[in-house]
Amino acid sequence: MKKFIFSILALSAVFVSCNTELDINQDPDALNADNAPLSAQLPSGITGIVGSEGAGMAIFGGFWSQYWTQSNAANQFKDIDNYSSSTSDYNFIWDGMYDALGDIRNVKRRALAEGNWKYYLIATTLEVQASQVLTDMYGSVPYKEANNKLILNPHFDTGEEIYGYMIEDLDDALAKDLATSTGSNPGTDDLIFGGNMTNWTKFANTLKLKIYMRQTASSRATIANAGIQQMLTDGVQFLDTDASMTQFSDAINQSNPLYEYVIRRLNVATNLRMSRTLSSFLADNSDARKGQYYASGNALNQGDYNNPAGSGTIAVVKLSATTPVLLMSKEESLFLQAEAAERYNSGVGAKALYDAAVSANFSRYSLSATSLLAGSYAYPTAGTFNQKLEAIITQKWIAGFPGNGFEAFFEKNRTGYPTTSSVPQTDAGYVSGQITYAVNGSTGGLFPKRIVYPLSERNANSNALPLVPITTPIWWE
Q1: Rounded distance, CA 46 to CA 250, Å?
Q2: Nearest of 145, 149, 148, 128 to residue 464 by alpha carbon
Q3: For residues 314 and 274, what is the distance between their CA atoms, to the nearest angstrom?
Q4: Which residues, at least 6 apart from 84, have a Cβ–Cβ distance to it below 8 Å?
Q5: Is 461 exposed, middle or buried (0-12, 13-18, 19+ CB in 10 A)?
Q6: Per the confidence metrics, is the pTM higher than 0.90?
Q7: What are the distances in angstroms from CA 380 to CA 325, 332, 374, 384?
C-alpha cells in the first residue's frame, strides 16, 4: 500500500481515525500488502476515497454547481471560481484518489486469488465508484494499468473505454456467488455498510444504472439504452439507503472532510459564501432547505468576489463536522430510477420515485416536502419528457448539497439542467436557479467542463497525456 499520511496534502488519509477500532498510529506501509488481512487494507482505501471526494472534489463541485461562491473577504478559491485552476493546483485530489485505489485494487486482487467474493464485490464497487468520478472529472485516466507495481508509467484509457470496463467489472463481481465466498467476512472494517452484502449488491446495481444513464446522449447511447432496459426487465434491486461514511466526530482529523479542509485546515470559516444561483431558487420557492444550507445574510453573485464589503453581510455556507460523506445517496438512487422510468417504462412509477427522492432529501433536515410537492415542486405528469427531466435533475442538483456538487456538475453537463442563464445575475431579467457565467470568469464565456491533469502525474508518468483545456467537454456530453 502507498503511504497513508495525515497531511493536508494527502486528504486520502486525514479521516481514517473515524473508526475507533483502527490504529491510526500504525503506518500501513509497515504491513505486507500481499498477506495482511483484507480487513486491514479496506478501511484505508475507503477513507482515501471519502477524503478526496469529500474535500477536494466537493470544493470544485460546489463552485461549479453554484452552491457557493468565493468570499469577497478572502481569496482561497478564486482560481476555481473564475475557472483558472492550473496543473500546479489541487494535485492532492488526483494523488489521493489513486493512493486510495491502490489499497482498493490490492484488496480486489487478493480477494480474487482467495475466492473471497464478498471482499471482491466491495472492492470492485469502490474501484468503479472512484473511477467514475475520476474519468468524469478528468476525461482519459489510467484504469487497466493503474496501481500495478510492475507498471511505473500506466497507460491512459479513454473515457469511452473506461465506461465499458466499469460495466464489465461490475458484471463480473455481481456474477460471483456470495454464498460460496471463502475466507473472512467483512464487518466493522467496511465503513460503508458494515458488511451488509445486500446493500453492496444494490449499490453495484445502482452504479451500473448511473454509468449507463450518463451515456444516454453519447456515442454509446445504444449500448446504454439496452443495458438499462435489461436491468429493468430483470427487476434488479437498486440502492434504498445511503452508501455513506458516517463515522465522523467534531475533533481534529476525525471530522467530515469538507469541514476538516475548509474550517480546520485553512482556518477560514467564512471562505465559502452563499451563491445567488441556488439560494435564489430556494427562496423563490419558499424552500426551507435554504436555512439549512446557509446562514442569514445576502447572496453574492457567482464569482463576484471583488464585490465591496459595503454591499451588506454575505451569508456563509453552513458546514458541519459530522455530516456524512455520500458515495451515493438514497435520493440519487431514486432520481436515477425516476429518470429510467420516464425513459424506458413510459413513465410508470416515475412520479412516485421522484416524490420519494425529494421527500428523502427534506427528511435529512427534519423537514417535510409535502406542500412543495403539491405546489411548485409538483412532478409535471402531463408535461413533456424534457419538462419531467428538468424537474428530476433540478431536484437532484439541490439534493447534492454540500458534498456531491460534482455529480450535479456532471448532470448539468449531461442534460443541460439547470438551464444556463442568457443574462448575468446583475440583470433584472435573471431567472432564479439558472446557472450563470462567473462574474470574474477567465475563459471568455465558456464554462468549465473538467479539471486539468495535475503536474504531479505529468512529472511522474511518461505516458501522461497532453493538457486538455478546462473548457473541453467530456466525451459523453
Answers
A1: 20
A2: 145
A3: 7
A4: 78, 442, 443
A5: middle
A6: yes
A7: 31, 19, 11, 8
The cell for 349 is: 412509477
Query: What end-to-end distance do the CA atoms of the chain give, in Å?
Result: 35
DSSP 188: T
Angle at 141 between CA 139 and CA 142, to 5 degrees: 165
Amino acid of residue 296: S
- What is the 8-class DSSP label of residue 244? E
Query: Cα–Cα distances in Å, from 56 out to 77, 84, 331, 384?
Result: 11, 16, 22, 37
Contacts of 112 (CB under 8 A, 6+ apart): 120
| Rounded Cα distance, 394 and 387, in Å | 10
Q: Which residue matches cell numbers 442534460?
A: 415
In the three-class reduction of DSSP (H, G, I as helix; E, B as strand; rest coil), residue 326 is classed as strand
Whole-number Å distance between alpha carbons of 335 and 332: 5
- CA of 370: how far to CAs of 226, 335, 367, in Å? 35, 17, 9
Rg, the chain, Cα only: 21
Closest to 337 in 3D by CA, of 327, 326, 323, 348: 348
In this structure, are residues 414 and 214 in contact, taking their beta carbons and an 8 Å threshold? yes
pLDDT tens, N- to C-terminus, the chain (477 residues): 333 223 333 333 333 333 333 333 345 555 677 778 999 999 999 999 999 999 999 999 999 999 999 998 888 999 999 999 999 989 999 999 999 999 999 999 999 999 999 999 999 999 999 999 999 999 999 999 999 999 999 999 999 999 999 999 999 999 999 999 999 999 999 999 999 999 999 999 999 999 999 999 999 999 999 999 999 999 999 999 999 999 999 999 999 999 999 998 887 778 899 999 999 999 999 999 999 999 999 999 999 999 876 557 899 999 999 999 999 999 999 999 999 999 999 999 999 999 999 999 999 999 999 999 999 999 999 999 999 999 999 999 999 999 999 999 999 999 999 999 999 998 999 999 999 999 999 999 999 999 999 999 999 999 999 999 999 999 999
363-402 core/surface letters (b: 16 or more CB in 10 A; e: else): ebeebebeebbeeebebbeeeeeeebbbbbbbbbbbbbbb
Separation between Cα atoms, residue 408 and residue 81, nearest integer Å: 16
Q: How far apart are CA 10 and CA 267, in angstroms?
A: 17
Instruction: Retrieve residue 344's grid coordinates.
Output: 424506458
Q: What angle do CA 393, 322, 290 make, to 5 degrees?
A: 45
